Amino acid sequence: MRILAVDHGEKRIGLALSDATATIASPLKVIEHVSRAIDAAQVADLATQNDVKLIVIGQSFDEDGNPNPAGRKAARFADELKNQTNLPVQLWDESFSTQEARTARIELGVSRKKRAGHQDAFAAVVILQSYLEAHRQINK
User: Fold this and answer.
1) Chain CA centroid to CA 43, Å
2) How far apart are alpha carbons 97 and 71 in whole angstroms?
3) Structure pTM?
4) Tens of pLDDT, residues 73-132
5) Half-sphere exposure of residue 132, counting CA atoms within 13 Å on the CB side?
6) pLDDT attached to residue 19
7) Pairing mode, if any, of strands 25-32 and 89-93?
8) Judging by DSSP bridges, how do beta strands 52-59 and 2-8 pair with one another?
9) What is the residue range of 24's domain?
């Protein structure tokens, strides 16, 4: 079962896709933010093209465990996506995914020049891999 992960940002939306066994997450692409409805339509279309069965959207929280402003925007995006697809859409804690993506690329030895720019697709990989690993533990 393929799963699509979304790292929803104000300017860009990072996307990652699992393999067919829902074991490994890989970056898919980054789309530029236009509007909530257009962004959701693009994500829904990519999900259909890639035979996705579940969409996971990263949501961030404040120190009290409540969605922060970015987390609330992600929830609104999830609601819009639910209006545009029949696929299940699930929110997943994405706290620190961008920082984890940056750290992982440093540890892999990716040069500073190649790390320059946006981490959106890699943040989506971190979100998806976290989701896959958590559900692998549950299903054992």
Assistant:
1) 11
2) 13
3) 0.83
4) 999 999 999 999 999 999 998 865 555 555 554 565 656 555 444 567 888 998 999 899
5) 22
6) 96
7) unpaired
8) parallel
9) 2-138
